[in-house]
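Support reply, case 0932

Customer input (verbatim):
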Amino acid sequence: MTGLHLWLRHETRTTERRTPVVPSDAGRLVDAGVTITVEDSPQRVFPVEAYERAGCRVAGAGSWVSAPPDAVVVGLKELPDGPAGLTHRHIFFGHAYKRQPGAEALLRRFLTGGGALLDLEYLVDDEGRRLAAFGYWAGYLGAALAVLHHRGALKAPLGPLSREELDAELAAGAGPLPALVVGALGRSGRGARAAFGVAGTEPTGWDLAETRDLDRAALLDHEVMVNTVLTTRPIPPFLTDEDLDRPGRRLRTLCDVTCDVGSPLNVLPVYDTTTDWTRPVRRLRERPVLDLIAIDNLPSLLPLEASTDFSAALLPQLLDFGAGRPWERCLDRFRRECRDLGLEKEPEAGGAR
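Our regenerated output:
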Protein backbone atom coordinates (compact mmCIF):
# COMPACT_ATOMS: atom_id res chain seq x y z
CA MET A 1 0.00 0.00 0.00
CA THR A 2 1.34 3.42 -0.90
CA GLY A 3 0.00 6.94 -0.55
CA LEU A 4 -1.88 6.56 2.73
CA HIS A 5 -0.77 8.91 5.50
CA LEU A 6 -2.22 8.19 8.95
CA TRP A 7 -1.86 10.84 11.66
CA LEU A 8 -2.30 9.41 15.17
CA ARG A 9 -3.41 12.32 17.31
CA HIS A 10 -2.96 13.05 20.99
CA GLU A 11 -6.13 12.58 23.08
CA THR A 12 -7.03 15.76 24.92
CA ARG A 13 -9.02 13.98 27.63
CA THR A 14 -6.54 13.53 30.48
CA THR A 15 -7.96 10.13 31.47
CA GLU A 16 -7.68 8.70 27.95
CA ARG A 17 -4.60 6.47 27.83
CA ARG A 18 -5.69 4.12 25.04
CA THR A 19 -4.55 4.23 21.45
CA PRO A 20 -6.30 2.87 18.36
CA VAL A 21 -2.97 1.68 16.88
CA VAL A 22 -0.26 0.11 19.04
CA PRO A 23 3.43 0.36 18.03
CA SER A 24 3.72 -3.23 16.75
CA ASP A 25 0.75 -2.75 14.41
CA ALA A 26 2.07 0.67 13.38
CA GLY A 27 5.22 -1.14 12.28
CA ARG A 28 3.18 -3.53 10.15
CA LEU A 29 1.48 -0.58 8.49
CA VAL A 30 4.81 1.11 7.83
CA ASP A 31 6.14 -2.12 6.31
CA ALA A 32 3.10 -2.11 4.02
CA GLY A 33 4.00 1.37 2.74
CA VAL A 34 1.81 3.52 4.99
CA THR A 35 3.24 6.78 6.30
CA ILE A 36 2.40 7.25 9.98
CA THR A 37 2.85 10.39 12.02
CA VAL A 38 2.35 10.00 15.78
CA GLU A 39 1.76 12.98 18.03
CA ASP A 40 3.60 13.08 21.32
CA SER A 41 1.18 12.25 24.14
CA PRO A 42 2.32 12.04 27.76
CA GLN A 43 -0.60 9.90 28.93
CA ARG A 44 -0.70 7.39 26.06
CA VAL A 45 0.04 3.90 27.38
CA PHE A 46 2.81 3.43 24.79
CA PRO A 47 5.65 6.00 24.71
CA VAL A 48 6.22 7.84 21.46
CA GLU A 49 9.71 6.31 21.27
CA ALA A 50 8.12 2.90 20.67
CA TYR A 51 6.42 4.31 17.57
CA GLU A 52 9.68 5.89 16.40
CA ARG A 53 11.36 2.50 16.61
CA ALA A 54 8.53 1.10 14.48
CA GLY A 55 9.34 3.60 11.72
CA CYS A 56 6.81 6.34 12.50
CA ARG A 57 7.37 10.06 12.33
CA VAL A 58 6.80 12.13 15.48
CA ALA A 59 4.96 15.46 15.79
CA GLY A 60 3.83 17.69 18.60
CA ALA A 61 0.53 17.19 20.40
CA GLY A 62 -2.34 18.85 18.56
CA SER A 63 -0.39 19.42 15.36
CA TRP A 64 -2.96 17.49 13.30
CA VAL A 65 -4.69 20.80 12.56
CA SER A 66 -1.82 21.65 10.20
CA ALA A 67 -1.26 18.12 8.86
CA PRO A 68 -1.07 17.68 5.07
CA PRO A 69 -4.55 17.82 3.53
CA ASP A 70 -4.50 14.16 2.48
CA ALA A 71 -3.57 12.89 5.97
CA VAL A 72 -6.21 10.79 7.74
CA VAL A 73 -6.37 11.79 11.40
CA VAL A 74 -6.89 8.83 13.74
CA GLY A 75 -8.04 9.04 17.36
CA LEU A 76 -10.58 7.68 19.80
CA LYS A 77 -12.49 10.25 21.80
CA GLU A 78 -13.81 13.75 21.21
CA LEU A 79 -11.95 16.46 19.33
CA PRO A 80 -11.04 19.77 20.96
CA ASP A 81 -13.47 22.64 20.37
CA GLY A 82 -11.33 24.21 17.65
CA PRO A 83 -10.83 24.76 14.82
CA ALA A 84 -14.31 25.69 13.64
CA GLY A 85 -13.80 23.95 10.31
CA LEU A 86 -12.43 20.41 10.08
CA THR A 87 -10.60 19.91 6.80
CA HIS A 88 -9.32 16.34 7.17
CA ARG A 89 -10.87 12.92 7.18
CA HIS A 90 -11.08 11.84 10.84
CA ILE A 91 -11.35 8.32 12.20
CA PHE A 92 -12.70 8.25 15.77
CA PHE A 93 -15.82 7.65 17.86
CA GLY A 94 -17.82 10.75 16.99
CA HIS A 95 -21.04 9.96 18.91
CA ALA A 96 -22.91 12.16 16.47
CA TYR A 97 -25.53 9.96 14.80
CA LYS A 98 -28.04 9.41 17.61
CA ARG A 99 -28.83 13.07 18.34
CA GLN A 100 -26.42 13.24 21.24
CA PRO A 101 -25.63 16.66 22.70
CA GLY A 102 -23.18 18.46 20.42
CA ALA A 103 -23.76 16.11 17.49
CA GLU A 104 -25.02 18.72 15.04
CA ALA A 105 -22.25 21.15 15.99
CA LEU A 106 -19.62 18.51 15.25
CA LEU A 107 -21.09 17.65 11.86
CA ARG A 108 -21.27 21.34 10.98
CA ARG A 109 -17.55 21.66 11.70
CA PHE A 110 -16.88 18.98 9.12
CA LEU A 111 -19.22 20.65 6.67
CA THR A 112 -17.52 24.01 7.20
CA GLY A 113 -14.04 22.65 6.58
CA GLY A 114 -14.87 20.09 3.89
CA GLY A 115 -13.62 17.13 5.94
CA ALA A 116 -15.42 13.91 6.81
CA LEU A 117 -16.10 11.75 9.84
CA LEU A 118 -15.36 8.03 9.49
CA ASP A 119 -16.99 6.93 12.73
CA LEU A 120 -15.50 3.79 14.25
CA GLU A 121 -18.85 2.83 15.75
CA TYR A 122 -20.16 2.41 12.18
CA LEU A 123 -17.18 0.53 10.76
CA VAL A 124 -19.13 -2.66 10.10
CA ASP A 125 -19.07 -5.71 7.86
CA ASP A 126 -21.70 -6.69 5.30
CA GLU A 127 -23.91 -8.07 8.09
CA GLY A 128 -23.71 -4.88 10.15
CA ARG A 129 -21.32 -6.30 12.75
CA ARG A 130 -18.73 -3.92 14.15
CA LEU A 131 -15.21 -4.68 13.00
CA ALA A 132 -13.27 -2.99 15.80
CA ALA A 133 -14.67 -2.34 19.25
CA PHE A 134 -13.70 -1.92 22.88
CA GLY A 135 -16.91 -3.58 24.02
CA TYR A 136 -15.43 -6.59 25.82
CA TRP A 137 -13.24 -4.47 28.06
CA ALA A 138 -15.97 -1.89 28.62
CA GLY A 139 -18.22 -4.64 29.94
CA TYR A 140 -15.42 -6.17 31.98
CA LEU A 141 -14.58 -2.86 33.66
CA GLY A 142 -18.24 -1.94 34.16
CA ALA A 143 -18.99 -5.16 36.01
CA ALA A 144 -15.72 -4.97 37.95
CA LEU A 145 -16.41 -1.45 39.21
CA ALA A 146 -20.01 -2.37 40.06
CA VAL A 147 -18.86 -5.35 42.13
CA LEU A 148 -16.15 -3.39 43.92
CA HIS A 149 -18.53 -0.54 44.72
CA HIS A 150 -21.23 -2.90 45.94
CA ARG A 151 -18.68 -4.45 48.31
CA GLY A 152 -17.58 -1.02 49.54
CA ALA A 153 -14.12 -1.58 48.05
CA LEU A 154 -14.08 0.93 45.17
CA LYS A 155 -11.53 3.67 45.73
CA ALA A 156 -11.77 7.09 44.08
CA PRO A 157 -10.32 8.69 42.13
CA LEU A 158 -9.89 5.83 39.69
CA GLY A 159 -6.63 5.23 37.85
CA PRO A 160 -5.31 2.89 35.18
CA LEU A 161 -4.13 -0.52 36.30
CA SER A 162 -3.20 -3.92 34.96
CA ARG A 163 -5.51 -6.87 34.41
CA GLU A 164 -3.66 -8.78 37.13
CA GLU A 165 -4.19 -5.99 39.67
CA LEU A 166 -7.87 -5.69 38.87
CA ASP A 167 -8.50 -9.43 39.00
CA ALA A 168 -6.75 -9.65 42.35
CA GLU A 169 -9.15 -7.06 43.76
CA LEU A 170 -12.15 -8.90 42.34
CA ALA A 171 -11.02 -12.26 43.69
CA ALA A 172 -10.21 -10.89 47.14
CA GLY A 173 -13.86 -10.81 48.17
CA ALA A 174 -15.21 -13.47 45.84
CA GLY A 175 -18.70 -14.72 46.53
CA PRO A 176 -22.19 -14.99 45.06
CA LEU A 177 -24.11 -11.80 44.34
CA PRO A 178 -27.60 -11.30 42.84
CA ALA A 179 -26.40 -9.64 39.63
CA LEU A 180 -27.92 -9.06 36.19
CA VAL A 181 -26.19 -8.40 32.86
CA VAL A 182 -28.50 -6.95 30.19
CA GLY A 183 -27.17 -7.57 26.70
CA ALA A 184 -25.38 -10.67 27.95
CA LEU A 185 -24.64 -12.21 24.55
CA GLY A 186 -22.84 -9.24 23.00
CA ARG A 187 -19.18 -8.24 23.30
CA SER A 188 -19.75 -6.04 26.35
CA GLY A 189 -22.04 -8.59 27.93
CA ARG A 190 -19.44 -11.33 27.58
CA GLY A 191 -16.87 -9.08 29.21
CA ALA A 192 -19.23 -8.26 32.09
CA ARG A 193 -19.98 -11.94 32.68
CA ALA A 194 -16.26 -12.74 32.69
CA ALA A 195 -15.58 -10.12 35.37
CA PHE A 196 -18.44 -11.39 37.50
CA GLY A 197 -16.92 -14.85 37.15
CA VAL A 198 -13.59 -13.66 38.53
CA ALA A 199 -15.54 -12.14 41.42
CA GLY A 200 -17.12 -15.51 42.19
CA THR A 201 -20.58 -14.71 40.82
CA GLU A 202 -22.62 -16.29 38.06
CA PRO A 203 -24.86 -13.41 36.94
CA THR A 204 -28.28 -13.68 35.37
CA GLY A 205 -27.94 -12.96 31.66
CA TRP A 206 -30.64 -11.22 29.65
CA ASP A 207 -30.57 -10.54 25.94
CA LEU A 208 -33.13 -9.95 23.17
CA ALA A 209 -35.62 -12.56 24.32
CA GLU A 210 -35.79 -11.21 27.88
CA THR A 211 -35.78 -7.51 26.99
CA ARG A 212 -38.46 -7.88 24.34
CA ASP A 213 -41.00 -8.49 27.11
CA LEU A 214 -39.27 -7.01 30.13
CA ASP A 215 -40.02 -8.42 33.59
CA ARG A 216 -39.44 -5.26 35.63
CA ALA A 217 -40.10 -6.95 38.96
CA ALA A 218 -37.41 -9.54 38.19
CA LEU A 219 -34.98 -6.83 37.07
CA LEU A 220 -35.47 -4.87 40.30
CA ASP A 221 -34.98 -8.03 42.37
CA HIS A 222 -31.24 -8.06 41.52
CA GLU A 223 -28.83 -6.08 43.69
CA VAL A 224 -26.44 -5.19 40.85
CA MET A 225 -27.32 -4.48 37.21
CA VAL A 226 -24.91 -3.89 34.33
CA ASN A 227 -26.41 -2.57 31.11
CA THR A 228 -24.45 -3.27 27.93
CA VAL A 229 -27.22 -2.79 25.35
CA LEU A 230 -26.47 -0.51 22.42
CA THR A 231 -29.56 0.04 20.31
CA THR A 232 -29.95 1.76 16.95
CA ARG A 233 -33.73 2.19 17.17
CA PRO A 234 -36.08 3.40 19.91
CA ILE A 235 -37.16 0.70 22.35
CA PRO A 236 -39.00 0.91 25.70
CA PRO A 237 -36.63 1.91 28.51
CA PHE A 238 -35.32 -0.76 30.85
CA LEU A 239 -35.68 1.51 33.88
CA THR A 240 -37.78 4.59 34.61
CA ASP A 241 -37.97 6.95 37.58
CA GLU A 242 -41.15 5.18 38.60
CA ASP A 243 -39.25 1.88 38.77
CA LEU A 244 -36.62 3.41 41.03
CA ASP A 245 -39.34 4.51 43.46
CA ARG A 246 -41.08 1.14 43.62
CA PRO A 247 -41.43 -0.30 47.14
CA GLY A 248 -39.33 -3.39 47.64
CA ARG A 249 -36.69 -2.50 45.04
CA ARG A 250 -33.56 -4.57 45.77
CA LEU A 251 -31.45 -2.94 43.08
CA ARG A 252 -28.60 -1.03 44.76
CA THR A 253 -25.88 -0.62 42.13
CA LEU A 254 -26.49 0.25 38.48
CA CYS A 255 -23.69 0.42 35.93
CA ASP A 256 -24.51 1.77 32.46
CA VAL A 257 -21.70 0.70 30.14
CA THR A 258 -23.45 2.12 27.08
CA CYS A 259 -23.73 5.73 28.38
CA ASP A 260 -26.23 6.89 25.76
CA VAL A 261 -27.26 9.78 28.01
CA GLY A 262 -28.89 12.63 26.10
CA SER A 263 -29.86 10.41 23.18
CA PRO A 264 -33.48 9.50 22.38
CA LEU A 265 -32.19 5.91 22.16
CA ASN A 266 -31.13 5.85 25.81
CA VAL A 267 -32.56 2.74 27.49
CA LEU A 268 -31.81 4.08 30.98
CA PRO A 269 -33.35 7.58 31.07
CA VAL A 270 -32.99 7.81 34.85
CA TYR A 271 -29.93 10.09 34.83
CA ASP A 272 -28.75 13.03 32.75
CA THR A 273 -24.99 13.23 33.35
CA THR A 274 -22.23 10.63 33.17
CA THR A 275 -19.83 9.98 36.01
CA ASP A 276 -16.04 10.08 35.68
CA TRP A 277 -12.78 8.83 37.15
CA THR A 278 -12.75 11.49 39.86
CA ARG A 279 -16.32 10.81 40.98
CA PRO A 280 -17.18 7.40 39.55
CA VAL A 281 -20.39 6.95 41.52
CA ARG A 282 -23.51 9.11 41.80
CA ARG A 283 -26.39 8.46 44.14
CA LEU A 284 -29.75 8.29 42.38
CA ARG A 285 -31.91 7.39 45.39
CA GLU A 286 -31.39 7.52 49.13
CA ARG A 287 -34.17 5.22 50.39
CA PRO A 288 -33.41 2.56 49.55
CA VAL A 289 -29.97 3.45 48.23
CA LEU A 290 -29.32 3.23 44.49
CA ASP A 291 -25.93 4.24 43.11
CA LEU A 292 -24.97 4.81 39.46
CA ILE A 293 -21.71 4.21 37.61
CA ALA A 294 -21.76 5.66 34.07
CA ILE A 295 -18.22 6.24 32.80
CA ASP A 296 -17.89 6.66 29.04
CA ASN A 297 -14.24 5.56 28.70
CA LEU A 298 -14.15 2.49 30.93
CA PRO A 299 -11.61 0.53 28.81
CA SER A 300 -9.01 3.23 29.41
CA LEU A 301 -8.71 1.84 32.95
CA LEU A 302 -7.04 -1.19 31.31
CA PRO A 303 -5.28 0.72 28.53
CA LEU A 304 -2.72 -1.91 27.54
CA GLU A 305 -5.14 -4.80 27.07
CA ALA A 306 -7.87 -2.67 25.52
CA SER A 307 -5.53 -0.96 23.04
CA THR A 308 -3.83 -4.17 22.00
CA ASP A 309 -7.12 -5.95 21.23
CA PHE A 310 -8.63 -2.97 19.43
CA SER A 311 -5.53 -2.33 17.32
CA ALA A 312 -5.40 -5.97 16.22
CA ALA A 313 -9.00 -5.69 14.96
CA LEU A 314 -8.46 -2.31 13.28
CA LEU A 315 -5.19 -3.25 11.54
CA PRO A 316 -6.67 -5.23 8.61
CA GLN A 317 -9.19 -2.46 7.99
CA LEU A 318 -6.43 0.15 7.82
CA LEU A 319 -4.42 -2.06 5.48
CA ASP A 320 -7.48 -2.12 3.23
CA PHE A 321 -8.28 1.57 3.61
CA GLY A 322 -8.07 2.43 -0.07
CA ALA A 323 -10.53 -0.19 -1.25
CA GLY A 324 -12.49 -1.51 1.73
CA ARG A 325 -16.26 -1.37 1.61
CA PRO A 326 -16.51 -0.78 5.40
CA TRP A 327 -14.87 2.64 5.00
CA GLU A 328 -17.19 3.51 2.13
CA ARG A 329 -20.11 2.62 4.39
CA CYS A 330 -18.69 4.95 7.04
CA LEU A 331 -18.53 7.79 4.55
CA ASP A 332 -22.02 7.06 3.24
CA ARG A 333 -23.36 7.15 6.78
CA PHE A 334 -21.69 10.49 7.43
CA ARG A 335 -23.22 12.01 4.30
CA ARG A 336 -26.66 10.61 5.12
CA GLU A 337 -26.56 12.03 8.66
CA CYS A 338 -25.61 15.44 7.30
CA ARG A 339 -28.56 15.33 4.90
CA ASP A 340 -30.95 14.16 7.61
CA LEU A 341 -29.97 17.10 9.79
CA GLY A 342 -30.78 19.44 6.93
CA LEU A 343 -27.25 20.77 6.59
CA GLU A 344 -26.91 23.11 3.69
CA LYS A 345 -24.55 21.35 1.33
CA GLU A 346 -23.09 17.94 0.60
CA PRO A 347 -19.69 17.38 2.28
CA GLU A 348 -16.89 17.83 -0.20
CA ALA A 349 -14.47 15.28 1.23
CA GLY A 350 -13.48 12.39 -0.95
CA GLY A 351 -14.08 8.79 -0.06
CA ALA A 352 -11.79 6.46 1.83
CA ARG A 353 -9.27 6.76 -0.96
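We compared this against your earlier run and they match. Two observations from our side: The longest strand covers residues 35-39. The radius of gyration is 21 Å. Please reopen the case if you see a mismatch on your end.
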